[in-house]
Design brief:
Strand content: under 5%
Structural class: mainly alpha
Bound molecules: fe (ii) ion
Order of helices and strands: EEHHHHHHHHHHHHHHHHHHHHHHHHH
Number of strands: 2
Radius of gyration: 23 Å
Distance between the termini: 69 Å
Length: 477
């Protein structure tokens, strides 16, 4: 075994711009794979094009096949399973015929674990890679993203913090690392540092859409509506040219409008931006269902918009790749009245949990399936059942993944159900908690005021209305 842990049959080693080693004779393949990873990190559209060039330069490129499988896994749909398995097989064949570094072997193993729903196994392997190769941007992004989908905020932040020692302003891709760190800080509630690091990342690379997004989250969480709108507007030319992630930033913009009760503008954004293209990408469906549900909960007529979302959700109801996505598929099915399909999906989630082990079993069986049952119960008007299911579960919902901002929909579901079930003591306690946690949320104060008014707490209701009114006035000065 040589310097890189290679076997005798190694044909060559090429390093990328951060001196991370790849088994290939083609420096073009390494350059293109580096570009593909950077494109993914920057949420650009051309990651697949660069990957294709890498594999064209070296059709047996081990890390080309690994990245290919990773990119397909990111779509989180079962229909790609066979192609993912084929890419893993191609990577293993390359390792067998050419030899491979330990890092490359670990990447293949991590990918296999991920593909087998063994998230813990995948995390441990990516962590191990980074101990020796802290500049492996692929491992870092995959690790960080997986913590995101396991709702592990501390590790979203600290997976990046653990490698910061190896990165500096001269390291290519440094801004991407800061952008991920900013988002992790935000998810941990450290908004001041998140904003500062996010701005630093954007100053290094103004086209870093993930860093733009991290700052957007800070502005959303702090209820800084005007700044949030201006921030998105100022960077719009950049992020509208990103991948379909642009739809997610339009969604963030819509959340700011929702709090201001500008529902016509929200619907306009829904039709002409967020859902202008009726894709079946899970994040697009998450954005859309989350927004439609909020609009309906507020009393806005959303017309027939659920139908196409429910069609897409039905097609993916058995995928069970991300419980967070499943919960949104359930919202679409339930809202469109597809109750039999929704019930079958809950049973399918329970079966998936029973057939799984470790985190997948817990997340699907103990959190995902009960949450989906609550979503279905809400649509059927059984609000007591929603409260009974979600009240004891609410602190565990984060393990479904997604950001704090995205997760908020599940907490609003509980509050809305508590109000409709007439369980106002619970609603009051939840609104008291939320108002303390996010005192600049206009929705919080308005909802709190309605709950207090229903409880005949006139003084409390007036005080809450004044808070909401003052926040609105502060925006229109
Ligand atoms: Fe977001």
């Amino acid at each position: 075994m040589g310097k890189h842990g290679l076997s005798e049959r190694t044909i060559a080693i090429q390093n990328d711009q951060r001196d991370v080693a790849y088994t290939t004779s083609s420096d073009d393949a390494v350059r293109h794979i580096d570009d593909a990873i950077a494109s993914w990190a920057g949420i650009r559209r051309d990651a697949g094009d660069h990957l294709e060039l890498a594999l064209r330069a070296d059709p047996d490129f081990l890390m080309g096949h690994v990245v290919s499988a990773c990119f397909m896994k990111l779509f989180a749909v079962r229909e790609l399973d066979e192609r993912i398995s084929a890419a893993i097989t191609a990577a293993k064949k390359s390792a067998l015929e050419r030899g491979a570094t330990q890092r490359e072997r670990d990447h293949i193993s991590a990918l296999g674990a991920w593909h087998g729903d063994d998230w813990q196994g995948a995390l441990e392997l990516w962590e191990r890679i980074l101990l020796e190769h802290p500049l492996d941007l692929l491992a870092l992004k995959l690790l960080n993203r997986t913590y995101f989908y396991l709702g592990d905020a501390r590790n979203i932040r600290d997976s990046i913090a653990r490698v910061l020692y190896a990165w500096n302003e001269n390291t290519p891709g440094h801004g991407f690392v800061l952008g991920m760190y900013a988002f992790g800080l935000e998810e941990c509630g450290d908004y001041a540092n998140a904003e500062a690091v996010g701005h630093h990342a954007v100053s290094i690379n103004p086209a870093d859409v993930w860093a733009i997004h991290a700052v957007t989250h800070v502005l959303e969480m702090q209820g800084r509506h005007r700044e949030g709108t201006e921030w998105l507007k100022a960077s719009e030319k950049i992020w509208t040219n990103s991948s379909n992630f642009a739809n997610h930033l339009w969604w963030h913009g819509a959340l700011l409008l929702m709090d201001l009760e500008r529902y016509h503008a929200v619907l306009d954004g829904y039709d002409n931006r967020i859902r202008a293209e009726e894709t079946d990408d899970y994040l697009d469906i998450v954005n859309a269902t989350s927004l439609l549900w909020r609009l309906e909960e507020t009393g806005v007529d959303v017309g027939s918009r659920w139908i196409e979302l429910a069609d897409k959700a039905e097609a993916h109801a058995g995928d069970h790749q991300l419980a967070f996505a499943d919960a949104h598929y359930m919202m679409a099915l339930a809202a469109d009245g597809r109750l039999d399909t929704a019930q079958e999906m809950i049973e399918s989630m329970s079966s998936h949990a029973a057939a799984s082990q470790g985190m997948a079993a817990t997340i699907y069986g103990e959190i995902g399936a009960p949450l989906c049952a609550a979503i279905l119960a809400y649509s059927c008007g059984d609000f007591d059942r929603v409260v009974d299911l979600l009240q004891p579960l609410r602190y565990d919902l984060r393990y479904l993944g997604g950001s704090v901002a995205q997760q908020d929909i599940f907490h609003r579901l509980l509050i809305s159900a508590a109000v409709r079930a007439g369980r106002l003591d619970i609603a009051r306690s939840l609104m008291s908690e939320r108002s303390a946690d996010r005192p600049t949320s206009i929705w919080n104060w308005r909802t709190y005021a309605r709950v207090l008014a229903t409880l005949d707490d006139e003084a409390g209701a007036v005080a809450a209305w004044r808070k909401a009114r003052d926040l609105v006035a502060g925006l229109t000065l």
